[in-house]
Design goal:
Number of helices: 0
Strand content: over 45%
Radius of gyration: 24 Å
Largest sheet: 8 strands, antiparallel
Distance between the termini: 31 Å
Structural class: mainly beta
């Protein structure tokens, strides 16, 4: 092992459910994107220390239809694999359409591509029996789909079992009958995220158990036969951050398990693993994790991705190098040539005519109809659509928050004509929890003004006492500053002289732990334009700048 260390998390901010692979000398990870568009963020590395966002796999409506989907629905837990013989990438993913009634209405699909950069194929429907699908390529050439089959019946153990069914890539369909092969390696409960690997004559099944909260963990089991029976690793879970290994498999309703917060660990919620082997035979597990803000214990950055170095024991079980089960903030790096990437610019000036890879929209694609880089060169023109409370068509463009100490700044030109119209800057978790510094028309003040509107677990709040008249401001500079998750908005007419707008706000509420809806994504910072009158008014944004600080 080299003296260079992997610094975790390697993918900061909302990047959960990693699926890692190696193709030649290149490493790729796919992560969940939920209701954000484009779908499935793909990250690239050549040394597993340095990573950059490379592309998105699902960038067309025929691959990803999400209009009206509830927050924390959409794309769950993609599985990215590579068939060396076919020289083809396979991506399996779930679209979670509704969790109402605990029924979990969803669809699982596969897309393929000869290049990681795409274009990815039209989607092929697989099944709808449960989430976290994964594709296993056996060494005899056959392909097998595994997923958690979601249990909906009263009196049966939840969440269900892992099922397997053969996939025919020529006919592009599942064949035969699905078989139940696994019900968990421990009694931690909430089993999900199955992946199958083959080594030295054993089939290994890796799953997540304990729920995707503070009781989370990575577990392993093995069998000489693909269909089992599988024997559990005697040291399960092999990775966790939990304070205690809680063997309460029937407690599936409390997935967060805040009592499992471990004050001795810098990484929390560690679980949902994916395994990769380097060119030199070294082994690593990518897994999700979180870094809550203290003392509130709120993970406003969402679930992130870490990597741990592992090794196989003489009796064929996988262990973290150095021993123990606790996910590490620092891990040994592989014996690979360092490959850092050039730093990315903090400011997007909207001058290139191309979309910044970090800017996303909600549920529907960004297109010229409502977000134009050409209508006024050097500006992003947003045409107002629905409010931030909507599940359908907002004119919101946003990026992941990757540090609880960060500043975002923009400059907007906007002339609202009535109170239905607004434009501005937002810290956004979902339609039930956001903060919005907006320019709008105030009848009581007789003109254009700045004010703060926010949603607090679905309750709309307007801070009318801190409104700022800006009728004579042609350009309005807006800033959102986060310090340990506490949010302050400010504004300026010239970008030089700034004044605070409203009080300090608790940005840590934009988190899974504060959400009353049981959601599990992460905070974004973005710019928005709303027109609940005619869907016509436009706002011109000159730039969008994101900086992190200590």
């Amino acid at each position: 092992m080299t003296t260079i260390k992997i610094q975790n998390p390697v993918l900061k901010g909302f990047n959960p459910d990693p699926s890692i692979l190696r193709a030649g000398d290149d490493y790729y990870m796919a992560t969940s994107t939920f209701e954000w568009f484009p779908g499935v963020q793909i990250h690239h590395s050549r040394d597993m220390v340095n990573w950059q966002t490379l592309c998105y796999a699902l960038d067309r409506p025929d691959q990803l239809d999400m209009k009206g989907i509830e927050a924390s629905g959409g794309v769950w837990a993609p599985c990215l694999t590579y068939d060396q013989q076919e020289q083809t990438f396979y991506l399996i993913y779930t679209i979670m359409r509704s969790t109402n009634g605990n029924a979990f209405d969803l669809d699982n699909y596969v897309v393929t591509s000869k290049s990681i950069l795409g274009p990815w194929s039209e989607r092929i429907y697989l099944n709808s029996s449960g989430f976290d699908p994964s594709l296993f390529h056996d060494d005899d050439g056959r392909k097998w789909l595994v997923n958690l089959e979601w249990e909906t019946r009263k009196g049966y153990e939840h969440p269900g079992s892992i099922v397997i069914q053969e996939y025919d890539p020529v006919r592009q369909e599942l064949t035969g009958t699905a078989r139940s092969i696994f019900r968990g390696a421990t009694d931690m409960g909430c089993m999900e995220a199955p992946h199958i690997y083959k080594r030295d004559g054993y089939y290994y099944i890796m799953t997540a158990e304990g729920g995707t909260g503070f009781g989370h963990g990575v577990t392993m089991a093995r069998s000489r036969e693909l269909f089992g029976p599988y024997e559990s690793d005697p040291c399960n879970p092999i990775i966790t951050s939990a304070r205690l290994v809680n063997l309460d498999r029937r407690n599936v309703d409390d997935y967060l398990k805040p009592y499992q917060y471990n004050p001795d660990s810098l990484l929390q919620k560690s679980g949902h693993g994916s395994l990769v082997e380097t060119q030199k035979g070294e082994w690593y597990i990518a897994h999700l994790c979180a870094r809550p803000v203290l003392p509130q214990i709120r993970s406003m950055l969402g679930r992130e991705t870490a990597i741990q170095a592992c090794e196989w024991t003489e009796d064929g079980w996988l262990r973290m190098i150095g021993g123990g089960q606790s996910a590490l903030i620092e891990a040994p790096a592989p014996e690979l040539t360092p490959h850092p990437f050039a730093p990315e610019p903090a400011r997007e000036d909207f001058d290139s005519g191309k979309w910044n890879i970090h800017l996303n929209s909600l549920r529907v694609p960004i297109d010229e109809e409502w977000a134009s880089l050409s209508a006024r060169p050097g500006f992003l023109r947003l045409r107002g659509r629905q409010s931030l409370f909507s599940l359908h068509e907002q004119s919101l463009v946003a990026r992941r928050l990757q540090s609880v100490n960060a500043t975002v700044e923009t400059c907007v030109e906007f002339e609202p004509e009535n109170y239905h119209q607004s434009a501005g800057l937002t810290l956004f978790y979902d339609q039930n929890m956001f903060y919005y510094l907006r320019v709008y028309y105030s009848e009581s003040l007789g003109g254009k003004c700045l004010g703060i509107l926010y949603a607090d677990n679905g309750t709309k709040v307007e801070l009318t006492e801190s409104r700022l008249p800006v009728a004579d401001w042609e350009s309005i500079y807006l800033r959102a500053e986060l310090r340990q998750g506490m949010l302050t908005f400010s504004a300026s007419p010239d970008g030089a002289q700034w004044q605070q707008v409203g009080p300090e706000l608790d940005g840590t509420k934009c988190s899974d732990e504060y959400s009353a809806s049981g959601h599990f994504t992460g905070a974004f910072l973005g710019i928005n334009c709303q027109d609940s009158y005619r869907r016509q008014i436009t706002a011109d944004f000159d730039y969008f700048e994101y900086r992190e600080h200590s």
